Amino acid sequence: MSAELGNPHAQFCLGVMYKDGEGVQRSAEKAAEWFIKAAEQGYPEAQLCIGMFYATGSGVPQSFERSAEWIGRAAEQGLAEAQILLSMYYKGGVGVPRSEQESERWKSRAIEQDNEYAIALAKKIDQLRLPRVPVSCEDTLAWIRGLGRKCDKNIFII
Fold first, then answer.
1. What are the structural domain ranges in the chain?
2. Which architecture does CATH list for 8-153?
3. What are the angstrom distances between the C-alpha of 25 and each of 16, 136, 145?
4. Taking the alpha carbons of 67, 55, 39, 87 in that order, is the dihedral positive or negative?
């Protein structure tokens, strides 16, 4: 299977399948394992997902510090959704030291990409009661699937 051979896109897709119970028995733990494998190879969407898993304690022990670390890695690679989430984390001091300057920097980087999701969250960022998890893992994963980053089921053929 492509995921077992180390293909990060396949690993990410398998993580989504386990998370959703799509073609396999739903398992947050197995989803997290596959997201971590892809994330460790630098796959930004997987980094964002495992970051959200750490934020919610889904399949892994809850840790806002680990969440911020993984989301930060995706943000550094230019993933606008991760950048706006990292902005929210800095604004509220969630897993990172509170910093308005860092919050604004990450928010600006996300908005510059003209990403609808990031822009919508940026408009709400000042209204949020932080610290708290700014969006759910469900919302983040739904957004990712809606991007046309749908997983090709054929990549799982042995």
1. 8-153
2. Alpha Horseshoe (1.25)
3. 12, 22, 19
4. negative
